[in-house]
Design brief:
4 helices; single chain; mainly alpha
């Protein structure tokens, strides 16, 4: 793995761990206060995605390209990430009966891996 790729991955993990840890704690609080898991995830996914755009654009990938183009691609990538998270909750909580706290923690990691590659290769790709 190239040094640049390693640095991006480390930066992505730092930005992601901070935002997702806060988001997951808030998810636990909201679901404890009786908000349904899928609604809590939707609220937090939207908030975290909005905040992380600029963190990943500026810190992780140092993207200097067109803001609107990257923003549109970001929305597409995040929409797919959201659908992945929703399907994971629907299948493993609603269908199989697993604890939503555990499922959501795993979903965060699964979606984070997808998003790293999506952001790197699609959203904030370097012009050739």
């Amino acid at each position: 793995m190239k040094i640049q790729h390693k640095k991006q991955l480390i930066k992505y993990l730092l930005v992601g761990v901070a935002s997702n840890a806060a988001g997951y704690c808030t998810y636990l609080l909201l679901t404890h206060l009786l908000l349904p898991p899928k609604i809590a995830m939707t609220l937090l996914y939207t908030l975290t995605a909005a905040v992380s755009f600029f963190g990943n654009k500026n810190i992780t990938f140092s993207h200097e390209g067109n803001l609107f183009g990257a923003g549109f691609r970001y929305l597409l990538a995040q929409a797919l990430g959201y659908l992945m998270n929703l399907v994971i909750l629907m299948v493993f909580v609603d269908q199989f009966g697993y604890n939503h706290r555990v499922v959501q923690a795993i979903a965060i990691v699964v979606v984070a891996f997808y998003l790293f590659f999506s952001l790197k290769l699609f959203v904030f790709r370097r012009a050739i």
